[in-house]
C-alpha cells in the first residue's frame, strides 16, 4: 500500500497511506491537529491543501463549493493521493494527553428536567484519566457510541456529563429510561481540541443547551487556578428554548463573569434576554472582533455566529467551536 508524505508548513511531517485520514495519521505520529466531530460535519479540522492531491474517505459536508474550489480540505475526511503540503498547526498543549478506553460506572443520575440529566461517572482508581477542560469523551453502551462533553474539571474525582434527550434517540432511550446507578459503561477519551487557548484577549463564550457543559469545565478550572490573573472581560451568553432549561447557576470565587441567559421561548415571568444567543451577543457585546470566541452546542448557532462574526471582521483563528452534531 502506498505511503505518502504529509507535510505542514507549520512544522509537522509524517507518512500516511491506505484509507487512513490525514487527521488520524497525524495522531499516530504524535501530532494533534484541530478536530471535533471527525465525521465531516463541523468543519473544525478545515485546512488549506497547498500542494498535492487528496481523496475523500467520507463526504466533506461542512465545506461549501467555494471552499472546495479554494483548495480547502477537512483532514478528518481526506487521505493523500500524492505527497501533500497542508497548513495545519500541531496543538502541543495536548501532547501527553492520551486517548484511552476505560470502564466507567454510573455514580449518580440527577434529573434536572424531563429532558436534561446530569450524570456522574466513576473511573477505576488506576485510570489516570487526563484531559484538558473543554474536551469530550465517547460513552459506549451496548455497542452504541455517543459523544459527550466533560462538564467537570480535571481536579475532580468523577466525570460529570450534562445530557439532553433526543426524541427517538437510541442513547437517549438508555439514559432516560434504563440507566441506573452502578451501571457499567465504557468511555473512550478525551477527544477534541476545544480548550482555552488564548486568555490574553477578552473571552466570549456562546452556548446553546447542554453546550454549556465544556464551558462550565473551562470556567471552573480558571476559577480554581491560583496563577490565573483575570486581565480581560469574560462573558457567557447561554441560550435555551425554555426557562427551566437553565440548569446551571455559576458560582465563582475569583472570576468576574458576565453571565447572560437568552431564552427563545420565554414565559411571562422571564426577565432575561429573549432571542438567539448569537444575535443577542452581536447586539450587546462591544468589540466582538477583539475577543477570543468559544462557541459550543447546536451547529446552527455555531455556523450563524461564525458568519455574523466574520462579517464583523473577526479573524477566523479567534473562533473556536465544538458542534454537537449527530455523533455517528
Ligand atoms: C463532540 C460532541 C460533543 C457532544 N456533547 C454532548 C453533550 O455534552 N451533551 C449532550 O446532550 N449531547 C452531546 N452531543 C450529542 C450526542 O453525542 C448525541 O448525538 C445526542 O445525544 C443524540 O444521541 P441519541 O443516541 O439519543 O440520538 P440518535 O439515535 O443518534 O438520533 C435520534 C434522532 O435525533 C437526531 N439527532 C441525533 N443527534 C443529533 C444532534 N446532535 N443534532 C441534531 N439532531 C440529532 C437524529 O438524526 C435522529 O433523528 C455531542 C456530540 C458531539 C459530536
Ligand atoms: S469536520 Fe473534521 S472534525 Fe468535524
UniProtKB/TrEMBL annotation:
Gene3D superfamilies in the record: 3.10.20.30, Nucleotide-binding domain of ferredoxin-NADP reductase (FNR) module (3.40.50.80), Translation factors (2.40.30.10)
Ranges for domain FAD-binding FR-type come to: 99-197
Q: Which domain of life is it from?
A: Bacteria
Q: Which residues form the 2Fe-2S ferredoxin-type domain?
A: 2-92
UniProt-listed InterPro entries: 2Fe-2S_ferredoxin-like_sf, 2Fe-2S_ferredoxin-type, 2Fe2S_fd_BS, Beta-grasp_dom_sf, Cbr1-like_FAD-bd_dom, FAD-bd_FR_type, FNR_nucleotide-bd, MRET
Identify the stretch annotated as signal peptide in this record: none
Pfam families in alphabetical order: FAD_binding_6, Fer2, NAD_binding_1
Q: Which SUPFAM superfamilies match?
A: 2Fe-2S ferredoxin-like (SSF54292), Ferredoxin reductase-like, C-terminal NADP-linked domain (SSF52343), Riboflavin synthase domain-like (SSF63380)
* One MF annotation (Gene Ontology) recorded for this entry: 2 iron, 2 sulfur cluster binding
- Name-wise, this protein is 2Fe-2S iron-sulfur cluster binding domain-containing protein
Q: Which organism is it from?
A: Hydrogenovibrio thermophilus
Amino acid at each position: 500500500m502506498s505511503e505518502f508524505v504529509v507535510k505542514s508548513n507549520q512544522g509537522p511531517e509524517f507518512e500516511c497511506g491506505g484509507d487512513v485520514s490525514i487527521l488520524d495519521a497525524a495522531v499516530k505520529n504524535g501530532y494533534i491537529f484541530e478536530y471535533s466531530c471527525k465525521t465531516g460535519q463541523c468543519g473544525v479540522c478545515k485546512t488549506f491543501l497547498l500542494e498535492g492531491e487528496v481523496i475523500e474517505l467520507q463526504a466533506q459536508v461542512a465545506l461549501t463549493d467555494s471552499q472546495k474550489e479554494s483548495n480547502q480540505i477537512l483532514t478528518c475526511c481526506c487521505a493523500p493521493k500524492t505527497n501533500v503540503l497542508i497548513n495545519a498547526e500541531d496543538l502541543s498543549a495536548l501532547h501527553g494527553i492520551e486517548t484511552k478506553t476505560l470502564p466507567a460506572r454510573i455514580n449518580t443520575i440527577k434529573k434536572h428536567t424531563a429532558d436534561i440529566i446530569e450524570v456522574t461517572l466513576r473511573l477505576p482508581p488506576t485510570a489516570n484519566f487526563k484531559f484538558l477542560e473543554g474536551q469530550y469523551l465517547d460513552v459506549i453502551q451496548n455497542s452504541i457510541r455517543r459523544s459527550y462533553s466533560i462538564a467537570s474539571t480535571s481536579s475532580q474525582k468523577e466525570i460529570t456529563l450534562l445530557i439532553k434527550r433526543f426524541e427517538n434517540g437510541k442513547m437517549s432511550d438508555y439514559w432516560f429510561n434504563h440507566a441506573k446507578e452502578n451501571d457499567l459503561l465504557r468511555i473512550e477519551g478525551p477527544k477534541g481540541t476545544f480548550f482555552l487557548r488564548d486568555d490574553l484577549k477578552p473571552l466570549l463564550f456562546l452556548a446553546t443547551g447542554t453546550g454549556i457543559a465544556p464551558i462550565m469545565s473551562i470556567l471552573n478550572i480558571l476559577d480554581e487556578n491560583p496563577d490565573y490573573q483575570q486581565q480581560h472581560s469574560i462573558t457567557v451568553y447561554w441560550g435555551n428554548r425554555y426557562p427551566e432549561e437553565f440548569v446551571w447557576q455559576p458560582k465563582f470565587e475569583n472570576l468576574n463573569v458576565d453571565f447572560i441567559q437568552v431564552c427563545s421561548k420565554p414565559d411571562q415571568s422571564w426577565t432575561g434576554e429573549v432571542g438567539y444567543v448569537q444575535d443577542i451577543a452581536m447586539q450587546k457585546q462591544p468589540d466582538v472582533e477583539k475577543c477570543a470566541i468559544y462557541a459550543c452546542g447546536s451547529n446552527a448557532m455555531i455556523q450563524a455566529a461564525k458568519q455574523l462574526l466574520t462579517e464583523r471582521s473577526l479573524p477566523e483563528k479567534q473562533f473556536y467551536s465544538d458542534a454537537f452534531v449527530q455523533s455517528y
